[in-house]
Write a structure and sequence with these properties.
This protein is α+β, with helices and mostly antiparallel strands. It has 23 helices and 22 strands. The strands form 6 sheets. Strands 1, 6, 7, 8 and 10 form a 5-stranded antiparallel beta sheet that branches. Strands 2, 3, 4, 5 and 9 form a 5-stranded antiparallel beta sheet that branches. The C terminus is likely disordered.
């Protein structure tokens, strides 16, 4: 089989409705095919879409196969079923197979601006579950809880023996190589730093000249200057990261999820790092694969030479390229279609220098923009420096996949994940079964039905991450659009790339549980009071801005399901873009919240691609509450005890806490008015008073359930607060007085 790779400029594709452009011929055995592209639509109802068809061009004969088409940087399509190809179509045979709505024409034209369009096409045998997948699925399906426990212990023993040691030690390159790497990075970073410093100086000079004379003109000019600078430097930073490669691509993905830490122009530019990296030549990749298998002592399974000792065939055209490696499709000697992932060898050599440079870049940006969040930046960098090296031992990813599969069995989760093929894997090569489908990043969601299935898949994956996080203290920390799959014709949820998974300690899980329960209350007052004296630090005392920051970093919905006012979010976005030195920020963050925050950020990117506002906190709240109950039963603490007194549905309590002062004030005014009406000698006044009393009674009756739940929960919370203060050493009287102060301030 010789799949097609066709590079073509947009201008070389013919225009016109139902007008096709045909690729060069490619073959499947002795059968010939070509790819037809209709850039201006194929059907009357599909004029706004690009259509693609794999067409049989041999003049005689027939063959069976499943057609697939992909566009680099765009969607990937695969036929849902096998087709019998023949020169002339009839009831059983087809002359072509394709998709009338491959992608929207608008997105197609936008993609063409980046350079030549690169199509790949192939006709493969029907992909069914391999015997390995059937066997693994059956083995896990037949497992008892005791079997699952034993299997998990076996995976943990692998780690103890050092087979998948998470504390990876990477031997650095020579000092000359590291020095050259450092010099290359600083040569690219220095001009960016200097241009930003010049902009700061211009803004400061203009401030002295204009602010006292014409404040509006000053703000307009300042905004324009910073916007232009961020747009320009975002492109420069992406170019620098692309030229450095490796860890910098991973860093670009991380920064693209930190909307509240870097300017929006940077986020918009760096989010393209999720769409895939440039492919490397097969001559280089074949050596990497062979070095990772033969060079690491993996026993051959066939009689061939080179890669032929391990695979019946390996596709030379890459399936995908990531930040640290490249992925190819291959066929085993058992006939399985598998995915083979290999790490680029220089990634390990450059790791030490790149980690130092990444920290230096973060420090430089913090200094240039005078960002008041050194503690948060340090926590993020500490976590990344510890976790990124783990991705460079693919045995760790294999272990994560095994644990995820066992956890899914234990908790009844139905998320498609690959099966590891141990006998064809090493620390540098990971061989897995192939999930047929498309990634969220390449999915064309212009079809409402596809979009809804994609949203449902994202919600299912969010739920699955929450289950393993709060029940097993283990979670996939990188669910960005390129790692979420829509599998098969049913578009089932799937998850790939388990390199970045994190395990929390019980104290760390307690912190996460407390925050999720607090955020679910949607109560500004409760959240503000509970976080005082915690590990979270803010440079603002404004409760609304604190609330906006917390939902910005620790929920996939920045609106907090409507609790965060749009004005507060606009203040945050404007500050990071135009006045970073005074922007509201989290100055300190507990370290365990770094990767939790990354999960929320990457999930938000997935939901944003689908134009959906979904709260992970709402989905995770039931699991977080149960986990907090278990932790508190083992080791009680005052904060957890107080939070667990909240009702399972805290909405009634939130209404009381937030609105009680206003409601009481309004009720007093109404009652005064009613009293005045009754004392009035006017018949009209007494009638109005009676109507007012009736309306008030009707409202209280209508809201009786929420008000009753809220009042009971409020009383429990008050008593728990007194108990917690007494445990902390305060007298009961002083505790009551302290708890009254926030209510007086709110009133």
């Amino acid at each position: 089989m010789a799949p097609l790779t066709w590079r073509v400029a947009l201008t070389d594709l013919r225009k016109g409705f139902k007008v096709k452009s045909s690729s060069p011929i490619f073959t499947k055995g002795k059968h010939e095919f070509c790819l037809d592209v209709y850039r201006d639509g194929w059907g009357d109802e599909d004029r706004d879409f690009v259509a693609v068809f794999v067409r049989y061009v041999s003049k005689r004969g027939s063959t069976k196969g499943v057609a697939s088409v992909a566009l680099e940087g765009g969607p990937r399509w695969q036929a849902p079923e096998e087709v019998v190809f023949a020169p002339v179509a009839d009831l059983e045979k087809r002359s072509r197979s394709g998709d009338r709505r491959f992608m929207s024409r608008e997105a197609f034209l936008e993609l063409s601006k980046r350079g030549p369009l690169v199509f790949t096409a192939s006709v493969d045998p029907t992909r069914r579950l391999s015997q390995r997948e059937i066997s693994v699925a059956k083995d896990i399906e037949d497992m008892s809880e005791e079997d699952v426990r034993e299997a998990l212990l076996a995976v943990d023993r692998e780690e103890v023996k050092g087979l998948t040691d998470p504390k990876v030690t990477i031997k650095g390159s020579s000092w000359m190589t590291q020095s050259a790497r450092n010099a290359k990075f600083m040569t690219g970073l220095y001009p960016i730093v200097m241009r930003y410093l010049r902009v700061k100086k211009k803004v400061a000079k203009m401030r002295k000249q204009l602010k006292g004379v014409d404040r509006e003109a000053y703000y307009d000019e300042r905004t324009a200057m910073w916007d232009e600078a961020h747009e320009r430097e975002a492109k420069a930073i992406r170019k620098l990261f692309d030229s450095m490669g490796g860890l910098y691509n991973k860093l670009a993905q991380d920064w693209a999820t930190r909307d509240g830490l870097v300017p929006q122009a940077w986020v918009d530019e760096l989010k393209h790092s999720f769409e895939g990296m440039p492919f490397r030549e097969w001559a280089q990749m074949s050596k990497m694969l062979l070095r990772g298998l033969e060079g690491e002592g993996v026993p051959p399974v066939g009689e061939g030479k080179g890669l032929g000792a391990y695979f019946a065939a390996v596709d030379q055209t890459p399936l995908a390229a990531a930040s640290i490696g490249q992925v190819h499709l291959a066929t085993t000697y058992a006939g399985e279609r598998v995915v083979v992932k290999a790490i680029y060898p220089e990634i390990r050599r450059y790791l030490i220098a790149d980690l130092k440079n990444a920290r230096k870049a973060a420090q430089q940006i913090t200094w240039i923009l005078k960002l008041p969040m050194k503690g948060t930046i340090n926590a993020i960098m500490d976590e990344e420096v510890e976790c990124f090296p783990r991705e460079l031992d693919l045995r760790i990813e294999a272990r994560h996949l095994k644990k995820q599969r066992l956890y899914q069995k234990r908790h009844g989760l139905d998320i498609a994940i690959p099966v590891v093929i141990d006998e064809l894997s090493s620390s540098s090569v990971l061989t897995q079964t192939f999930l047929t489908g498309t990634t969220m990043g390449n999915c064309d969601v212009s079809d409402p039905a596809v979009r809804q299935k994609a949203i449902d898949a994202c919600k299912d994956i969010t739920h699955a991450i929450g289950v393993t996080l709060f029940r097993e203290r283990f979670f996939h920390a990188d669910p960005h659009p390129g790692n979420i799959m829509l599998v098969g014709e049913e578009l089932k949820p799937g998850l790939i790339d388990f390199g970045q998974c994190t395990t929390l300690t019980k104290p760390q899980l307690r912190t996460v549980c407390q925050l999720v329960v607090l955020l679910r209350t949607r109560s500004q007052t409760l959240i503000d009071q509970a976080l005082r004296g915690s590990g979270f630090g803010f440079n603002t005392e404004d409760p609304e801005l604190k609330l906006a920051l917390l939902y910005y970093f620790f929920d996939s919905s920045t609106t907090g399901s409507g609790v965060v006012r749009p004005e507060a979010m606009e203040i945050l976005k404007d500050a990071i873009q135009h006045k970073p030195a005074s922007m509201p920020v989290l100055t300190d963050t507990p370290r365990e919240m770094v990767f939790y925050g990354r999960v929320c950020g990457t999930l938000r990117k997935s939901f944003e691609k689908l134009d959906a506002d979904v709260s992970a906190v709402t989905i995770w709240y039931p699991e977080a509450r149960k986990a907090l109950q278990r932790l508190n039963a083992e080791n009680p603490d005052p904060i957890s005890s107080a939070l667990l007194l909240l009702p399972e549905n805290p909405d009634g309590l939130t209404y009381l806490v937030e609105r009680a002062p206003v409601v009481l004030s309004r009720a007093t005014e109404v009652m005064n008015s009613v009293g005045g009406g009754f004392s009035s000698s006017s018949e009209v006044g007494r009638s109005r008073a009676l109507v007012g009393v009736a309306g008030l009674c009707a409202a209280m009756w209508y809201l009786r359930d929420a008000l009753l739940v809220g009042m009971v929960a409020f009383a429990k919370l008050f008593l728990a607060g007194v108990a917690a203060a007494v445990v902390a050493g305060a007298s009961p009287l002083n505790a009551v007085r302290a708890l009254k102060r926030p209510a007086k301030a709110a009133a």
